[in-house]
Amino acid sequence: MISRKRIASGQITAAWLGELMAKYQPEQVILGRFPELQTLLQAELDQQFESRPHPHLTHFIHHRRVNYESNMRQ
Fold this sequence. Notes:
With 74 residues, the chain is an alpha+beta fold. It has one domain (4-73). 55% of the residues lie in helices and 19% in strands. The protein is built from 4 helices and 3 strands; from the N terminus they run ααβαββα. Strand 2 (49-53) and strand 3 form a beta hairpin. The protein starts with a helix and ends with a helix.
């Protein structure tokens, strides 16, 4: 769980988020409440995810998931 206090205190870093992403390898990342997290993750998001914007959040889907969905439609 990521809270405003953890972000403000500096506990949430790009390195820490990168470790989490490497460890859990999520298929999807949803960012809405804390836009600063997108800034910390931007390099990884650009490399591995496709952005699907929504009115109140940004939804990132891993390229492997996008490719899977595309293959299923064919």
